[in-house]
Design goal:
- Its EC number is 3.5.1.98.
- It is an enzyme of class 3 (hydrolase).
- Belongs to the histone deacetylase family. HD Type 1 subfamily.
- By secondary structure, this protein is α/β, with parallel strands linked by helices.
- It has one domain: Arginase, Chain A, CATH 3.40.800.20.
- The strands form two sheets. It has an eight-stranded parallel sheet, with helices on both faces. A two-stranded antiparallel sheet has the order 1-10.
- Helix 7 links the parallel strand 5 and strand 6.
- Helix 5 packs parallel to helix 6 and helix 8 runs parallel beside helix 9.
- The longest helix has 20 residues.
- The C terminus is likely disordered.
Amino acid sequence: MSEKWTPVPEETQKKRVCYFFDSDIGGFHYGPGHPMKPTRIRMCHSLVMNYGLYKRMEIFRAKPATKREMTQFHSDEYIDFLSRITPSNMGSYVKEQYKYNVGDDCPVFDGMFDYCSISAGGSMEGAARLSRDKCDIAINWAGGLHHAKKNEASGFCYVNDIVLGILELLRYHTRVLYIDIDVHHGDGVEEAFYTTDRVMTCSFHKYGEYFPGTGELRDVGIGKGKYYALNFPLRDGITDQTYRDVFRPVIQQVMDTYDPSAVVLQCGTDSLSGDKLGCFNLSMKGHADCVKFVKSFNKPLLMVGGGGYTMRNVSRAWAFETGLATGVELSPSIPMNEYYEYFGPTYELDVKPSNMEDMNTPRYLDRVRNILSDNLRRQGGPPSVQMQDVPRLPIDEMMDDIGAEDDLIPPDERRHQRLLDTRRQADGELSDSDDEGEVRRLTVARRARGESSRASWASISAQRQALHLTALDPVPIRPCRR
């Protein structure tokens, strides 16, 4: 397998990497024509395995998060609603769907609560292993659902696994830094920690007539959390070099000023060139350069997924970044795997930029960077936290004896295969777009024999501009009950 990767030249020490994957994740389906496709995570996992990265890290299936664990951030009523509603009974919850913003961008689909449990469980257990020094880097590509609010679904996200993971990290770490490189603003995470200095949120995103309509330069936090929310609004077409020129200096100053003891990196790939809902022009290596730079600080690092709606590019980028986490760069030629035909006609790992015009002028970027630099200087150094005993919880016993159970889900409680089959996407639904290359078109035509391609999903950038952001109540940093 050694010919499938090369060591990263500047890598000084090997990191202990924990990688979380649940095979059930590929069986969930948001519905026909919806751009969010959980199958992309299984496509990424197929690349990870066939590149042989399993030899360089530990692979785990996390225990799905329970309702009680989710209510560490979300309201009891909201989580109870998510656990009860199904496609067959949704007609009885019309009022609740409107209240919790479920039904449009966030449809009700079969197994929705199980999907949320898998996503949240991976991020929470990854955070727990980091806190207990079981690994240096934890990866959960099923996570990164950064739009979900305390009492509301938003932007394809129902349960905010990132906030739940950060709450677990805060049990052991005094300060946590959250970095978001998704094309959309990480509004759910920022809102959750808007009033505290124990978590600093840093988001690089498209702003202006674009979902979710938040993340302005002047949004810096309030109260005790003032200047601990950092937003870098970007314009269309940003390139690798331009992104690098703003990302590295800002994150370097954040690290020097805030000095976090743990980092959470949201690696949304809708900032890649050619994404169906994105408007940036990053290549795969330009996106991965952010991962490489954040990793270089040698802080406990939780890497999660996020957006990304051109599946062949999502799986490429996350597989490549998984390799970087383990200290290697994957070779350009994609190895044989169960989704091999989706990477045609080139069958190469790279995601190349287009000739899209970069609307981010040097003058604009310098102005934003100077304002953010001034805000960081106003922090006055890393905030201190009063020391206290860490409460003993059930997850602590589990982490003390990790090998006690090989599979935390009893076999007789698993969903029946016939039920899983009903949630599978049709072959036509796996198509990212109607122009993926001649090989892919011929394959779909051969399988679908005369079926018309699905209607493309309309852009959501202008649909949610009337977003009403409720007033923020102070969010106490509570110990995770996991």
